[in-house]
Write a structure and sequence with these properties.
Blueprint: E1 6-9, H1 15-24, H2 32-35, E2 39-44, E3 47-57, E4 60-68, H3 77-91, E5 96-101, H4 105-109, E6 114-115, H5 123-126, H6 129-134, E7 140-145
Parallel strand pairs: 4-5
Antiparallel strand pairs: 1-2, 2-3, 3-4, 5-7, 6-7
Length: 147
Amino acid sequence: MIKDMRIRMAQPSDTLAIGTVLERCGLPVDDLPRLVGEFHVAVLDAQLVGCACAELFGDTAIIRSVAVLREWRDQGVASHLVHAVMMRARANGSRRAVLLTSTCPSYFARYGFSLIHASKLPTEVLESQEFRRLRDTSALCMSAELG
């Protein structure tokens, strides 16, 4: 990871910067105000360069909105963000993390995620905004045990 990069929990004042990162990475921002407190952010020289979120549903966390600005990719930023949100989810009682991805299943396999059929997930996860948004797309469902 970049020497002076800091990973920290997001604050309400980070909402605009997180939205900018998500938009530049082609990810939705419509539910950001509701979820900002569930994000971790990567900050370099006071610039927010990446983010990730773990939305909690009982003992299951949906890992979502993992985004790093193009100029900071391939330097370990996303890895640190994913680790941070998974650790926080585990600390908050989640036993399993799930996600939907259509572009990088092999990336998430590094963290112990494997493909599963979405029908095996709790109803509250399937009815989440994230899963409803991607229900009729080619997104793959993946799951990892947290501990």
